[in-house]
Amino acid sequence: MKREFIKIKDMRRENSWINLKAKVFQLWNSESESISQIGLLGDETGTIKFITWKQSDHPLLEEDKCYEFKNLVTGSWQGKLQVNLNKNTIITPIDENIEVSFLTKLHGKIIRIYYGSGLIKRCPSCKRALINEVCPEHGNVEGIYDLRVKALLKDNDIQDILLNKDITEQLIGIDLEKAKELGQKSVLHKIEKSLLNKFFNVEGRRVGRYILVEDISDRDE
Fold first, then answer.
1. Please, how many CA atoms are within 13 Å of residue 221, restricted to the half-sphere of its CB?
2. Is pTM beyond 0.90 here?
3. CATH: 2.40.50.140, 3.30.1330.30, 3.40.50.1240, 3.40.50.620. Which one for 5-93?
4. CATH number of 103-218
5. HSE on the CB side for 75, CA within 13 Å?
6. In sequence order, what DSSP letters do the residues of 125-155 get, joined into one string?
7. pLDDT tens digits, residue range 184-208?
8. Cβ atoms 98, 21 nearer than 8 A
9. What residue segments make up the domains of the chain, in order of their start?
């Protein structure tokens, strides 16, 4: 069965094999010996982080060049979808000018608050959210407190959104220090009371399955 090319906005699940046409928007320095390249791929619907594993033996991609990628595998890091280039990935340069979209505007109702919202702890080294005080990369660490909201917003379609500490503080009316005093149960209650089943105007950058919210305001409905 022939696999069709998809858009970044349509990526929803981990561990999926996909085909993608995209521009190499940014390349980052990698500190891992097992990774040959890391950065952002983009198309007209958004951007997504990519990793090329060294053992895949692919030639290095060039920034601002467009490629056709076949047999990418979706994964995730810090709860955000990414794509992995492995030894089965076929990479072909293409003579196209793909315009990369960053800002996305949505208008809808938050219908779900995901697990992992509220008062969390992050690894001091890699900033990943801890699970039961354990970092998947660095094991048992002394975590650093943070606030966030992972939610589902219903527009014409449904869209996962991610709110950082500053925006979460703004919406629930308390800062991180007060949240630490109140505890996770009370903070989560405030989040649900402030956001759930309410309408918002949202603007942010698409990264994989999420819109990383940069601006949010109440929407009169």
1. 13
2. no
3. 2.40.50.140
4. 2.40.50.140
5. 14
6. TT-PBPBTTEETTTEE---EEEEEEEEEEES
7. 999 999 999 999 999 999 988 877 7
8. yes
9. 5-93, 103-218
